[in-house]
Amino acid sequence: MGQRYYENVQQNSVIKRTDWLIDSGTSNHFTHKKGILIKFTPIELLSIKVGKGYIFIYGYRDVIITLSINRVLSTTTLTNVLWTPDLEGPNLISTRQLLRIGIHIILDD
């Protein structure tokens, strides 16, 4: 199971909570919630193979999230998060993308 992270989304002055999953098997960050993308950029329809099927990507942009790490809140921006309404379940954070920007993940009991 993934860990639960918190994301600040300003919508009618209410902070909403959204689940994210850190995924070592995905090469990109993904969300199915278009409304959390800052300055959404549409793209020509693109399909990506996942498992035995495909999902369609309609655009991308940045998402600001607040992480709870050792009970300390830290805000960061995930860049180039792909939007796919076909994604079921939690939003995905790519460990590969985090490593590319110098964020290391240590898993501990």
Question: Top keywords for this entry?
Answer:
109 residues, mainly beta, four-stranded mixed sheet, two-stranded antiparallel ribbon, 1 helix, 8 strands, 6% helix, globular, disordered N terminus
Write the layout of secondary structure elements.
Layout lengths: L9 E2 L2 E2 L4 E4 L6 E2 L6 E13 L2 E17 L2 E12 L7 E4 H6 L9
Parallel strand pairs: 3-8, 4-7
Antiparallel strand pairs: 1-2, 5-6, 6-7
Task: Please provide a written account of the structure.
The protein is mainly beta and 109 residues long. It has one domain. Helix content is 6%, strand content 51%. The protein has 1 helix and 8 strands. The strands form 3 sheets. A 4-stranded mixed beta sheet has the order 4-7-6-5, with no helix packed on it. It is globular.
Low-confidence stretches: 1-15
Classification by helices and strands = mainly beta
One letter per element, helices H and strands E, the order comes to EEEEEEEEH
- Could you say which overall geometry the principal axes of the C-alpha atoms support? globular
Could you tell me the mean pLDDT? 80
Helix segment tally = 1
Approximately how much beta-strand content do the residues carry? over 45%
Q: Characterize the largest beta sheet: strand count, sense, and whether it forms a barrel.
A: 4 strands, mixed
How big is the Rg?
A: 14 Å
First CA to last CA: what distance?
13 Å
The residue fraction in helices comes out at: under 10%
How many domains would you count in the coordinates?
1
* Oligomeric state of the chains present here: single chain
**Taking strands numbered 1, 2, ... along the chain, how are they ordered across the largest sheet?**
4-7-6-5
Number of strands: 8
